[in-house]
Amino acid sequence: MERKSLYKHKTQTVEEKRNQRRQEEIDQRKARREKCVSDKRFRHSVSEDTDAQGDEISEQEVIDATNVLLNKEPEKLEALQTLRRAFAQGTTYIDTFFGQENALTCLVGILTGNDTDLQLEAAWCVTNIAAGTDDQALAVVKAAAPYLITYLSSSSLDLKDQCAWAIGNLAGDSSECRKLLSSQGCVTPLVKLLETDTPNVVQSAAFALSNLARECNDIASEIVNAGVIPHLVSRLQDPGVSPKLLSEIAWVLTYLTSSGEFTNKLVSNGVLKHMVKILVEQADQQDVDVLTPVLRCLGNICSGPDEYSIQAFENTKLIPALVTCLNSEHHHIPKETLWVLSNMTGENTVCEKVTNGPLLEPILAKLKAAYDIKIEALYLLCNLGCHGEEACSVLISKGVVETVAAMLKTHDVELLHLVLSFIEMMLRLTDEGKALFEGSEGVARLEGLEYHTDEVTRKQANELLETYFYIDNNEEGAEDENME
C-alpha cells in the first residue's frame, strides 16, 4: 500500500470537492430553472386556461384594438381584453402592438387613469408584455414600473396582485431590469404584501421577490433587510398553505440561500427545519413544483457548515423521503436529490448513514440512468469515497468498481474525468480494488485512453497505469538486471 501514497494526483479532500461542486452548480444553474417553473409567465383568465387559452386572435384584431385605445373610442375595456389575450399568445402580437406609434404610452396612460376596471385590464396587458422579449420587458420597465410599484399599495387587492405579477415578469427578464426595479423602490412594498390575507397576492409578491433575488446578492440583501424572513417562515408554518404558494416561497428561499451569505440567519429562523419537514410531507405527493425549489434550497443550505447537514438528518423521516425522491419518475427530481446528497455527505455521520443505509441502493441504481443523472450519482459516490477506506470498501462490496470501469468506454470527457477520479480513489484506498478493476478489463480500457484527444484524460489514464499497474513490471525488470 505504501507505493500508493506516492501517487501525486490524489482525489481531492471532501472540502475541496465540495467547494468545486458548489461552484459547478452555481455555473450550471445560474440562469435557468427547470421547465416546470418559468421565470416569466403569461397570465390567462380562468376561462382561457380551461379553453386552451381561448380563441386565436389575428394581428389585424390587435391593430384594431390598439387603434381603439389611441383614438379614445368608448370600447376601451373590450379592446384591452383583446390585447391582453393576444399578448399571452405570443410575442408577435406584442411586436404588432409596439408597431403602432405611441401604443405603449397610451397603455400606461390608461394604467394611471381613474377607471379601476380599465386600470386592472391595462395592468394585465403590461404583465403579458413583460413576459415577452428582453426589449419588450425593458421598454415596460422604463415606461410603467414606477406606476406598478405605486399600485402595490393600492386599496384594490386585484390591482396589487396584477402589479406584483407584472413586476415578477420584469424581474425575471434580466439583471438590468432587476436593478432598475430595485432602484425604483419595489422591494419594501413587495415584502409588505406578504402580510396580506389574500393568498393570490402573497403568491404574486413571492414570485416577484424570487426573481428579484436571482443572481443579484445586493437585491437579496435588500430583501432580507426589509424583513422578509419572518414573513416567509410564518407562511411555512401555516398548515393551510397551498402548494402553489409553498412553491413560490421555496423559490424565494432558494435564491436567498444561493450565495451562503444569509444562510445562518435563515437557519436560525427555522428555515432548514421547515424545508426538511416540507420535503418529508411532499415526497409522496411528487408535486414537482414544490419539490424542485425545496430540494434546491436544502442543497444550498447543506453546502455550508457540516452542522446544517447534521440538523437536517435529525428528522428521522428524511431518509425515507430522499429514497422516494431518488425513485421518482420525474426526471429532474432524482437529479436534484443526488445533488442535495452530494452537499450533505461532506459530513462524516451523514456519509455513514448514506453509505450504510437504504439510500445507497437507489443511488447506485442511478449509475445506469440517463447521462445527467449518472453524472450526479458519480459526483456523490466520489464524495462518499473521499471519507476513506471504510466507505470505499462498502462501495466495492456493492460491485461499483465493475460498473464504473465499464464507463471508461464513454466518449464524454466530463464523465471520463469523474470515472478516472473514482477509480483512482478505489485503487489507492482499498486492497481489493486493483484485482476487481483488472478483472473488469479496466487496464485495457485505460490503455485505450493513453492516446485520447483530451490532455487531462490522457494524463489521468497514464498516471493510473504507471502508478498501479506498470510499476510491478518495472520493479521486476530492475530486479532481473541486478541479478545479472
UniProtKB/TrEMBL annotation:
Keywords: Protein transport, Transport
Pfam families on file: Arm (PF00514), HEAT_EZ (PF13513)
One record GO biological process: protein import into nucleus
GO molecular function: nuclear import signal receptor activity
Disordered as annotated region, ranges: 1-56
Feature: compositional bias, Basic residues: 1-11
InterPro entries: ARM-like (IPR011989), ARM-type_fold (IPR016024), Armadillo (IPR000225), Importin_alpha (IPR024931)
PROSITE patterns per the UniProt record, alphabetical: ARM_REPEAT
GO cellular-component term (any): cytoplasm
Record PANTHER family: TRANSMEMBRANE AND COILED-COIL DOMAIN-CONTAINING PROTEIN 6, TRANSMEMBRANE AND COILED-COIL DOMAIN-CONTAINING PROTEIN 6 TMCO6
Record-stated family: Belongs to the importin alpha family.
Record's protein name: Importin subunit alpha
Source organism phylogeny: Eukaryota, Metazoa, Spiralia, Lophotrochozoa, Mollusca
